[in-house]
Amino acid sequence: MKRAVYTGSFDPITNGHMDIIRRASEIFDVLIVSVLNNKEKTPLFSVEERVKILEEATKDLPNVQIDSFSGLLVDYAQEKDLHVIVRGLRAITDFEYELQMAQTNRMLSHGKIDTVFLTTSLEYAYLSSSAIKQIASFDGDITPCVPDFVADLIYEKYRQKKLSDNRNV
């Protein structure tokens, strides 16, 4: 059985992420999509919220499992007995960073973990979670960038944030 892991912050999940998830789920028998709990970032959504969002977004993909982790990806992959990491590439700048990470993960795993790169479909190449959050924070239209229910959740987060900020003034 071919199993792989696709990890990220997914804060928020974008249509570009969904493109990679769908395509990877066609290549592998089991794809584990795991949310990285990065303590160095201040996310819009909690890890638990991101897991629930991913579960909803991938409910039509029976071979996709959702999880979360913190720490080194290579340790997580070894713990789950996974030998393939899936990464999406939007541009050459992504490749430089991702190649370095792939080589590091291969070295740390003593050659037991490989990375497979999928290039993002052209219609999603411009997407980034950071840009989507910035657009949404100014009430811009993010509906072409994320699943519809995710757009609603993001707008609600920013409404709550604005209400909270107004109370603190």
Automatic annotation (TrEMBL):
Residues 5-134 form the Cytidyltransferase-like domain. Its EC number is 2.7.7.3. Signal peptide: none annotated. One of its GO terms (cellular component) is cytoplasm. GO terms for molecular function: ATP binding; pantetheine-phosphate adenylyltransferase activity. It catalyses: (R)-4'-phosphopantetheine + ATP + H(+) = 3'-dephospho-CoA + diphosphate. Pathway: Cofactor biosynthesis; coenzyme A biosynthesis; CoA from (R)-pantothenate: step 4/5. InterPro entries: Cyt_trans-like, PPAT, Rossmann-like_a/b/a_fold. It is found in: Cytoplasm. Its cofactor is Mg(2+). It holds the Pfam family CTP_transf_like. The record marks 17 as: Transition state stabilizer. GO terms for biological process: coenzyme A biosynthetic process. The keyword Transport does not apply. Keywords: ATP-binding, Coenzyme A biosynthesis, Cytoplasm, Magnesium, Nucleotide-binding, Nucleotidyltransferase, Transferase. Reversibly transfers an adenylyl group from ATP to 4'-phosphopantetheine, yielding dephospho-CoA (dPCoA) and pyrophosphate. Homohexamer. PANTHER family: PHOSPHOPANTETHEINE ADENYLYLTRANSFERASE. This is Phosphopantetheine adenylyltransferase. It comes from Simiaoa sunii. The lineage of its organism: Bacteria, Bacillati, Bacillota, Clostridia, Lachnospirales.
